[in-house]
């Protein structure tokens, strides 16, 4: 049977994704919604669990390595604890609060107009309180070991200057926030249906890789709630003197500007030709198959000025 191929003129393809509207700067109506307070509880609990597991891992490693230099999980195991917990907690809380678990991430989404100022401020408060409570639980369980092994606080290692530590934290936070923006981009979600399910995976891996690089320098404080929680409970002069929580906010600003002003414009320009070409090719193949089998082809979208085709019955 002969196959009929009909060529169609190129049309401007409508977007296959929907840009969410910018969040209002001050949405007082959120304060009357139970979902808002449920999200705050989710952020508090998630940050509490994150700090409890990770700081307990750090203290346990230092206790074991003090008796046996080859004992404990090592730097690799600590990095896995941080990255793995972020993967788990983002997966669990993404549908409730968005799975921020990090004031730097919340600040970045505020700059991108994904959350309101009220929600961002309350998220950051809940995250910091959760971090303090989580580290407090660790101290309550292993008080002697906690005080004797630095309390899991971020401190600049010997041989590194404060400027070096600041630079390492800025780069590490840039990697994390950049990954968050990329993994949650609506254009990527539209192109690849599996991406929303896998979004926590690259975020967790980003945390893992950054910890491998910066644990020897600062202990990795790319999460201000993690740094503040450990510093408050440990409460020693060096932990406060070496505090670099301003660096994640600086890196967040740079990452947000880079992604929203550079990459998104580039992706929009590229998606016009390549995306339309791929869609036209798929449409032609579907017409070949439908024509050869005697069925009426169907379309999910119609070009501007065209009439949508009849759906298959």
Average pLDDT score: 77
**Counted beta strands:** 0
The CATH H-level superfamily is: Glycerol uptake facilitator protein
CATH third-tier fold name = Glycerol uptake facilitator protein
Report the span from N to C terminus: 24 Å
Secondary-structure-based class equals: mainly alpha
Q: What percentage of residues falls in helices of 4 or more residues?
A: 55-70%
Form type: globular
Task: Please trace the helix and strand order, writing H or E for each element.
Answer: HHHHHHHHHHHH
Extract low-pLDDT stretches.
Answer: 270-284, 297-313
Structure, briefly:
InterPro entries: Aquaporin-like, Aquaporin_transptr, MIP, MIP_CS. This protein is 67% helix and 0% strand. The protein is mainly alpha-helical and 313 residues long.
Task: Show the helix and strand layout.
Layout: H1 34-67, H2 74-93, H3 103-111, H4 117-141, H5 143-148, H6 162-183, H7 186-191, H8 195-198, H9 200-218, H10 224-234, H11 237-241, H12 246-293
Helix pairs in contact: 1-2, 1-4, 2-9, 3-4, 3-6, 3-12, 4-10, 6-9, 6-12
Region (Disordered): 272-313
InterPro entries: Aquaporin-like, Aquaporin_transptr, MIP, MIP_CS
Transmembrane segments: 36-61, 73-96, 116-138, 159-181, 201-219
């Amino acid at each position: 049977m002969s196959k009929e191929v009909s060529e169609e003129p190129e049309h401007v393809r409508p977007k296959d994704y929907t840009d969410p509207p910018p969040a209002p700067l001050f949405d007082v109506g959120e304060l009357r919604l139970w979902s808002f307070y449920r999200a705050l509880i989710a952020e508090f609990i998630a940050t509490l669990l994150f700090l409890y597991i990770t700081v307990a891992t750090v203290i346990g490693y230092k206790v074991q390595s003090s008796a046996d230099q080859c004992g404990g999980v090592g730097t690799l195991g600590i990095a896995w604890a941080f990255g793995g917990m972020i993967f788990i907690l983002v997966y669990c809380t993404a549908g409730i609060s968005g799975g921020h678990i990090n004031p730097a991430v919340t600040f970045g989404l505020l700059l991108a107009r994904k959350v309101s100022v009220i929600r961002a401020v309350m998220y950051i408060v809940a995250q910091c309180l959760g971090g303090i409570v989580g580290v407090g639980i660790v101290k309550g369980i292993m008080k002697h070991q906690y005080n004797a092994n630095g309390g899991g606080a971020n401190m600049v290692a010997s041989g590194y200057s404060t400027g070096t530590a600041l630079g390492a934290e800025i780069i590490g936070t840039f990697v994390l926030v950049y990954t968050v923006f990329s993994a949650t981009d609506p254009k990527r979600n539209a192109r690849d249906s599996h991406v929303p399910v896998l979004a926590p995976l690259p975020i967790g891996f980003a945390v893992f890789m950054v910890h491998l690089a910066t644990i020897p320098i600062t202990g990795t404080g790319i999460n201000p709630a993690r740094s503040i929680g450990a510093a408050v409970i440990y409460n020693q002069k060096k932990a406060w003197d070496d505090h670099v929580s301003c660096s994640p906010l600086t890196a967040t600003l740079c990452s947000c500007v880079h992604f929203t002003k550079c990459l998104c414009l580039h992706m929009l320009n590229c998606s016009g030709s390549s995306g339309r070409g791929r869609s036209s090719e798929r449409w032609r193949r579907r017409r070949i198959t439908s024509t050869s089998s005697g069925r009426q082809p169907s379309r999910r979208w119609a070009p501007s000025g065209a009439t949508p085709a009849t759906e298959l019955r």
